[in-house]
Structures are given as C-alpha cells and as structure tokens.
Amino acid sequence: MPDAGTASGPKAETEAETEPQTDTETEAETETKAVVADEEPPPVADGPVFEASDRRSSITVDSVGITFRLDGETAEFDWSEIGAVETTTPRFGRRLAVSVYTTSRRRYDVHIEASSWNLPKRWATELDAVLDSYFEDTQTTID
C-alpha cells in the first residue's frame, strides 16, 4: 500500500503536469479575451420594452426586434424583417398568442400561459402600446 505522504501516484503526476501548462493556459486565456473583445457588444435596448413569459416560453419586444423563446430554442426577428404582428387573447382562457409575420411571408407563433385570467388582456394592451411605438404609422388612402 503506498504511503499517503509520498509524492507518487496519479495525483502527483497530475500536479506535475499542470504546472508547466500554466503558462500555456495563461496565453490561451489572453487569446480568448482578445477574441471576445473583438466581438460586438449586445445592442442596448432604447425605447419601450415588453416581456412576458411562462415556464416554457417567452416573448421580448424591444428596439432591436422581437425574440421568441420556447423550450430553449430562440427565434429573433429584426424590425426590418417583420411585416406584421398579431395578438390573440381568448375570451375564456389564460393564454396570450402572438404571431409574427415576416416580409418573406412566413408566420411564427408563441403562446404564453398566464397565471391569472386578466393577465393576457393586460399583456395584449401593453404589447400593443410597445408595438405602436416601433411600427411607423403609414396609412395609405385610396382616392
């Protein structure tokens, strides 16, 4: 049985191997920090923001666009690619449904389950106010 006080065994080899790699790890960390510094910082949201979520899904509306999340998957829509947004709240229910229609004629949906009956209607009102601030009011009249 090896003596606990000796420096033999796998633990001693591991410690001996990690000491020379410290310089290499420091260089790798420096390179990683340099790469991270070259990336663009995430955009800062200017203007009103709307957020709603439940245990599986969420929606975020800000100056960048609209972001849906469902079970760990994310769909991001920039304002330049959004053609229309539709919200639906059932008369009897606790769910807010939001549909994004893109300019490429595709539709994406998210459903948010609310904790109370009146919350989806409040969410829809808040979402409409935020959407109104980002969509230009371009109405055309036909003469």
How is the secondary structure organized here?
Layout: H1 10-38, E1 50-53, E2 57-61, E3 65-70, E4 73-78, E5 82-88, E6 95-102, E7 107-113, H2 119-134
Antiparallel strand pairs: 1-2, 2-3, 3-4, 5-6, 6-7
Structural commentary:
With 143 residues, this protein is an alpha+beta fold. The chain has two domains: 9-39; 50-134, PH-domain like, CATH 2.30.29.30. 31% of the residues lie in helices and 30% in strands. The protein is built from two helices and seven strands; from the N terminus they run αβββββββα. It has helices at 10-38, 119-134, and strands at residues 50-53, 57-61, 65-70, 73-78, 82-88, 95-102, 107-113. A four-stranded antiparallel β-sheet has the order 1-2-3-4, with helices on one face. A hairpin with a 6-residue loop joins strand 5 (82-88) and strand 6. Mean pLDDT is 77; it is low at 6-41 and 138-143.
Going by helix content, strand content and strand pairing, the class is: alpha+beta
Number of strands: 7
The domain count comes to: 2
Strand fraction:
25-35%
CATH fold topology of the largest domain: PH-domain like
What's the helix count?
A: 2
Order of helices and strands: HEEEEEEEH
Shape: globular
Short description:
The protein is α+β, with helices and mostly antiparallel strands and 143 residues long. Helices cover 31% and strands 30% of the residues.
